[in-house]
From TrEMBL:
Keywords: Membrane, Transmembrane, Transmembrane helix. The chain crosses the membrane at residues 12-33, 81-99, 106-127, 168-186. The keyword Transmembrane applies. This is Membrane protein. It comes from Kaistella antarctica. It comes from the Bacteria.
Amino acid sequence: MKTNSLHKITKILLAVLGIGLVISIFVPIWSIYLSAPQYPEGLAMFIHADKVSGEYEIINGLNHYIGMKEIHADEFWEFKILPFALGLFAVLCFLAAFLNSRKILYTLTGIYLLFGVGFVIDFWRWLYDYGHNLNPHAAIIVPGMSYQPPLFGYKQLLNFEVWSYPNIGGGIMIATGVILIILAFVENRMAKKAI
C-alpha cells in the first residue's frame, strides 16, 4: 500500500459520513421542547437545515406576551447556506474516499471542525438575542428576567420547562465531526509509521 493511501475502513467510513451528511439536509437538526401546566402535552419546535417546523407559531403567540421576537424562517440567513454547506462536506467526504486522499481528509476535518465551532457559536448568539432582546412594551415584563433557551439541556423559564438537544441531523453532524477527528488521527499515525 502506498504511504499516501487511505485504509479501506477509512474510505468506507468516509462514504458513510457523506451519505449521513446528505441525510442531515432533509431531517431535523435540533429540537426544542417546551412544557407548562397549560400545555401538559408540550410544544415542539424543530430546526432543519433550511426551515423551522413544529408548533413554533403557538410558541410565537406565547412569546409575544413577554416581548420575544417571532420566529420566521425567512429571517435566518443560515437557512440559505446550511444545506449547501452540508452538501459540500458530503462531496468532500466522497472525494477523499474515491480519490484515496489523506490531504483531502485532513483538509475536510479542519474545515468541518471550524464550521462546527462557528455553527455552535452562531446558534448560541441567536438564542442569546432571542432571549435578551425583548420588546420593552410587552404585556408581561419581569424586571431583570431574560428568556434565553438552553443551547443544550434543560432550563426553567417562568412556568415553562425547556429542553434543547440534537435531533437526527444534529446527531449525524456531531458524529461526523468525532469520526473525522478519529480517522484523521489514525491515518496520520499510520502514515508516519509507514515512512
